Amino acid sequence: MIPLIKIIFLCSVTIFVSTEFATAQSETIDSLHSELVDEADLLDSDTSTVFALLNLAEEYRNTNLDSTYKYAFLALKISEELNFVRGISTSQQHIGRVYFNRGEYDKVYELAREAFSLIGDTGYKTERASLNQLMGLFYAAQGSYEIGLNYFFKANELFEKLGDEEGAFQNLNNIGVSYIRLEDYDKALEIFMELDSLNTLNAQTIAIHVNLGFIYYELDDYEKAELNIKRVLNFEGDNFDRRGLGLSYFKMGEIHRWKKEYDSALAFFQRSIEIFDELENNIEKVQSLNGIAITYLEQSEFQQALEFAHLAFEISTESNTLPERSTSAKTLFEIYKTIGEPEKSLEYHILFKSFSDSLHNNEVSKAVGRLEAEHENEKFESELILQQQTKNLETTQQLTNRNFLLIIAFSLLIITVVIAFFLYKNSLVRKKANTLLQEKNVEIEQQAAKLQEMNEIKTHLFSIISHDLRGPLSSLYGFITLNEMDALSKDQIQRLLPELSEKFNSTSNLLNNLLNWAKSQLEGYKVIPEKFELKEIAKQTLKLLSHKVENKNLYVTIDLDDVVHVYADKNMMELVLLNLLSNAIKFTPNKGAIHLTASEKENSVKLCIQDSGVGISEKKLQMLFNKTNFYSTEGTNDEKGTGLGLILCKDFVRQNKGIFSAESEVDKGSKFCFTLPKAESD
Predict the structure, then answer these.
(1) 3-state class of 165 per DSSP?
(2) How far apart are CA 95 and CA 89, in angstroms?
(3) Hey, which residues does 675 pair with through a beta bridge?
């Protein structure tokens, strides 16, 4: 069975929640409508009209997103006319919830940030709790579950202080969903079982059973998964989140497909698609379209399978969402593989692998992504603090002016003294505020510069990964695929094997440099110094490269004293020597010479590697050590490189308290030297 993308039901932020069924909801809506005047006259209304509109928006929340948006937008316009902060913030939350249910996540983020800027970081606890929850939903929808959890925990603290049980329930639901997405199913199950024990089934608690169904499905307990999803589908009433209903039909389709009850599975998938059509949410239709395609595939109805799989791939491509594109490509790969079309199967398998690689970036990408998110979060919070300080300063100024006017009534002499005192005090406050603002600006600029540098590093690393690392892997994949299809003769296999071997030797060196560079730059490489003999590791390294030396018929000498000992990290120095000797071999022509020499000083040892190679110009020599450029050229036998090795060598030498230097002359060769601390005598 082909696993589809996991879609989990996240509760959106709630301001007011009705727990009645459809009849009670209708009566409430009629009552609210009676409180409103003609919509043409609404903009002349007061705050009571704002609250009536917001209550209407809340009543339509689970049944008609267009009506929710309409009334929330009217409430927003009136609140802006009245400069009613609470009304503006609450209206933005309702609109943001509509965007969330439609999958327009970028708009959710912009609205939440705008509302945060409006209310500041003090007061408005109810609004701040809901906005933290909305911001958590945005990050969770983008896959940044740890950052989303931070916002949910902030919201939880505020809901508890407010005694808001309903808000705390929804927030705890979202915390549980985040643990599902982090694949911590035991912790998620614990949360939802607790919620289920504390709440009766109604329109607002239906999300518990949607998520329990998903958890049990992932734990392979299909009986309990079906039981919980049935509780959702059999709920008597329509005043609950339609998105949750659509996800429940999808998961029920998955369960029936697993049970090989294909007609039922197709019916459930189709009902899910109809609901997401009503919500104008094309992205979440893809999962059910793929489900239908796989159901037809398992029944050997290949034409129908292809029709729905291509529709899913087309929608996911238009939406440019990687998880859905990856799943759809994999579905097409499986279908074409089953019906015996190897070219089409290979085409979509390569697409699937490409999307999958993008979804599971290496640790360097994750670290850079975390740095970007943390920087954005810190910058946003700094802006809020500065805005609040500005507001406080304005309030202080207003109080000062009022006190000043009161003092005038008593005495001209007191007026003079008070004026002088408050002018001096105000100048200090302004000076302090300006100083703080300048410090924050400098800090933000430094963070921006650091982020820019990290982005440039990330860009170059991705370029290396996508070209130099993925290329040999794609070659191997193509070779294996052709071999499995019996498309290669034995002679062709024998001709291809040496080339593949050489590519993977090069790829191994690249991967080693890449991982060490990433660890050094993004996580920190712990230096463990020890006493060792330079000549020993030089011989070991040269032995590893002996086949390359023999291929070029090079003359290599090691002029190192047996008693030369250094105090440094042996593993790091082995990597430095491996890179420097590899470069010397790479850029030295056939029958050239390479010499290793060492000289001692009082407290250090200097090791040099000199070759008779092609040499490097002064301009290119400077480019070799640019951390954000990774400059590289081909060797004398067209050997490939990434430009990462020399940067790594220089960094490792620096971490071992040494100095790295290089000198070169075009057509005469190059000389790379570095110093290391001299080991103390026993």
Answers:
(1) helix
(2) 10
(3) 606
Most confidently predicted of 192-206, 345-359, 363-377, 667-681:
667-681
Annotate 529-594 with three-state secondary structure. CEEEEHHHHHHHHHHHCHHHHHHHCCEEEEECCCCCEEEECHHHHHHHHHHHHHHHHHCCCCCCEE
Q: Quickly state the pLDDT bin for 418 (edges 50, 70, 90).
A: confident
CA–centroid distance for 308 within its chain = 30
- Integer Cα distance of 543 and 535 in angstroms: 12
User: How long, in residues, is the chain?
Assistant: 682
Other C-beta atoms within 10 Å of 403: how many? 12
Bigger pLDDT: 559 vs 473: 559
Who has greater pLDDT, 97 or 41? 97
What is the reported pTM? 0.45
Task: Give the β-pairing of 555-559 and 593-600.
Answer: parallel
Nearest to 171 by CA among 181, 149, 160, 156: 156
Mean pLDDT of 88-114: 83
Distance CA 9, CA 284 (A): 11
- Backbone torsions φ then ψ of 615, nearest 5 degrees: 80, 170
- Cα 610 from Cα 120, distance rounded (Å): 63
Six token digits for residue 285 = 């239709």
Do residues 265 and 257 make contact, with C-beta atoms less than 8 angstroms apart? yes
Distances in Å between the Cα of 343 and the Cα atoms of 86, 269, 396 are 60, 30, 74
Q: Report CA 224 to chain centroid distance, whole Å.
A: 33
The Cβ-side half-sphere exposure at 388, using a 13 Å CA radius, reads 12
What is the reported pLDDT for 395?
A: 58
Q: How many whole angstroms from its chain centre is CA 457?
A: 17
Predicted pLDDT at 278: 87
pLDDT at residue 682 is higher than 90? no
Q: How far apart are CA 435 and CA 236, in angstroms?
A: 62
Which carries the bigger pLDDT value, residue 348 or residue 63?
A: 348
Strands (E) across 388-547 are located at: 530-533
* Segments in 465-489 forming alpha helices (H): 470-484
221 against 10, higher pLDDT: 221
**Rounded CA separation 535/562 (Å):** 6
Helix axis angle, 285-298 relative to 242-258, nearest 10°?
20
Q: Give SS3 for 16.
A: coil
For residue 325, name the pLDDT band (cuts at 50, 70, 90).
Answer: confident
Section 77-105 average pLDDT: 84
* pLDDT above 70: residue 323: yes
CA angle, 493 then 497 then 502, to 5°: 160
Distance between CA 492 and CA 52 in Å, rounded?
A: 78
Burial (Cβ within 10 Å: 0-12, 13-18, ≥19) of residue 33:
exposed
For the chain, first and last CA: distance in Å? Answer: 66
* pLDDT (tens digit per residue) in 280-305: 888 889 999 999 999 999 999 999 99
**To which residue do tokens 């599971």 refer?**
360
pLDDT of 327 strictly over 50: yes
Q: Tell me the three state secondary structure of residue 677.
A: strand
The residue whose two tokens read 């090795």 is: 645
- State the DSSP H helix or E strand holding residue 595, giving kind and residue range, or none if neither: strand 593-600
- Radius of gyration of the chain, Cα coordinates, nearest whole angstrom: 33
Q: Is the dihedral of CA 36, 38, 39, 44 positive or negative?
A: negative
Measured between alpha carbons, how far is 133 from 268 in angstroms, rounded to an integer? 31
Looking up tokens 């327009």 gives 104
Which strand (E) or helix (H) includes residue 623?
A: helix 618-623
The secondary structure of residue 437, as a DSSP letter, is: H
